[in-house]
Amino acid sequence: MARFTLPRDLYHGKGALEALKTLEGKRAIVCVGGGSMKRFGFLDKAVSYLKEAGMEVELFEGIESDPSVETVMKGAAAMEKFQPDWIVAIGGGSPIDAAKAMWIKYEYPEVTFEDMCKVFGLPKLRTKAHFCAISSTSGTATEVTAFSIITDYQKGIKYPIADFEITPDVAIVDPELAETMPKKLVAHTGMDAMTHAVEAYVSTANCDFTDPLALHAIKMIQNDLVDSYNGDMEKRDSMHNAQCLAGMAFSNALLGIVHSMAHKTGAAFADYGAHIIHGAANAMYLPKVIAFNAKDETAKKRYGVIADFMGLGGSNDDEKVQLLIKYLRHMNDELNIPHCIKQYGADSYPTENGFVPENVFLERLPEIAKNAIGDACTGSNPRQPSQEEMEKLLKCCYYDTEVDF
Ligand SMILES: NC(=O)c1ccc[n+]([C@@H]2O[C@H](COP(=O)([O-])OP(=O)(O)OC[C@H]3O[C@@H](n4cnc5c(N)ncnc54)[C@H](O)[C@@H]3O)[C@@H](O)[C@H]2O)c1
Ligand SMILES: [Zn+2]
């Protein structure tokens, strides 16, 4: 038996933020990040809609990017004090993910962070509060997913919390919030969404319910992302929906080793100033992983279907896989994202000499490969890599060399 879970309600379209007026409850805590939502007036609007709904409102502000365990604990303590029956998270993936973890701790104060990380092992939530998520970036789709990513900075590792219990009750997908995103954020979050859709489509957990969502998302991202990056606001609005569809797909079909590798390389070179941004890492690794996975016949066929759906041509599956790889690499060029870690420069712009020195990369490679194999996303990848294969694959991602194994 498999399960397919999405929020009970999803409000979308310009002005959908107003749906907050329809929430029923006594007290709402609004969880928000560093300031963009306040600066652009969305936070004030959200608060006033909740007040119109008759609720007392408190803010939990300042949730950092890539939120920490400490922030989660602080937020849960604020909830314990205020006793909200609605948790409303507004912003990018970071504040929404943090609020999801706070919610768990608020409902079950005895649960530790380690307990939370047991995959699909959460107790029943919603005994104290319901959850509404409002996304302002177009990539993570955490407003509809069963995931939350929290960083343990003492260990330098990102941990996924995965359970349908944390799939929000209400998602608000209002494209107006995404219109203020800076260009680079559009590129990163957009390629993150493309990776979600492609990985979900070839995942071993794919099904009839996730396939149409993944394919439609891929087609939309193909049509809209580059133009959105270049300032087309209609395409920007459309990307907000596309990333959400990709999220519905991967929340139920899971992901693959592009994400495993992105999770484990993201913070691995932080001491060299190279925080490899999640979406940029995915954009660099996706073409390499497609070449690796395509050695599996079922995956190859599925990549062929994607290429057909995108209208890329090709007369057999091998050609289609090559055309898909070529297309995705071309998207990276259009979005000013490099093809490999060696060329990864500031803000993910391509440069001759990137942040990560070759000797440091090679020295850390075995450990990173081991961690990537152990990542929660590896299990649903269509091909299970050995330690040696994962090291080779990561080397291809460092040097931008061909994957022929
Ligand atoms: N839960 C999931 O399913 C899932 C999936 C993928 C990634 N993630 C996690 O999500 C986090 C990244 O989230 P993100 O990419 O949405 O970025 P983010 O939430 O970290 O925000 C990045 C920056 O963009 C700013 N920002 C956000 N919205 C803006 C807007 N509309 N206009 C201007 N500035 C804006 C923020 O203030 C912040 O400075 C990471 O921790 C990642 O691991 C979660
Ligand atoms: Zn992602």
Tell me what the structure shows:
This protein is of the alpha/beta class and 405 residues long. It has two domains: 9-178, Rossmann fold (3-Layer(aba) Sandwich); 181-399, Dehydroquinate synthase-like, alpha domain. The protein contains 14 helices and eight strands. The strands form two sheets. A six-stranded parallel sheet has the order 1-8-5-4-2-3, with helices on both faces. The longest helix is centred in the middle third of the chain and has 21 residues, at 233-253. It is globular and about 60 Å long. It starts with 8 loop residues before the first strand and ends in a 6-residue tail after the last helix. Nicotinamide-adenine-dinucleotide binds at residues 33-34, 36, 65-66, 91-94, 97, 136-137, 139-140, 142, 145, 147-149, 158, 177-178, 180-181, 185, 189, 192, 278.
Features:
48% helix, alpha/beta, 405 residues, Dehydroquinate synthase-like, alpha domain, 14 helices, binds zinc ion, 8 strands, two-stranded antiparallel ribbon, Rossmann fold, single chain, binds nicotinamide-adenine-dinucleotide, six-stranded parallel beta sheet, 11% strand
Q: How would you describe the shape?
A: globular
Mean residue pLDDT: 96
Element pattern in H and E: EEHHEHEHHEEEEHHHHHHHHH
**Largest beta sheet, briefly?**
6 strands, parallel
- Identify the CATH architecture of the largest domain: Up-down Bundle
The chain-level structural class is alpha/beta
Q: Tell me the number of strands.
A: 8
Spans of at least 5 consecutive residues with low confidence: none
CATH superfamily heading of the largest domain = Dehydroquinate synthase-like - alpha domain
Question: Any idea of the CATH class of the largest domain?
Answer: Mainly Alpha
Taking Cα atoms only, what radius of gyration do you get, to the nearest Å? Answer: 20 Å
The termini sit apart by: 34 Å
Helix content: 40-55%
Ligands bound to this protein structure: nicotinamide-adenine-dinucleotide, zinc ion
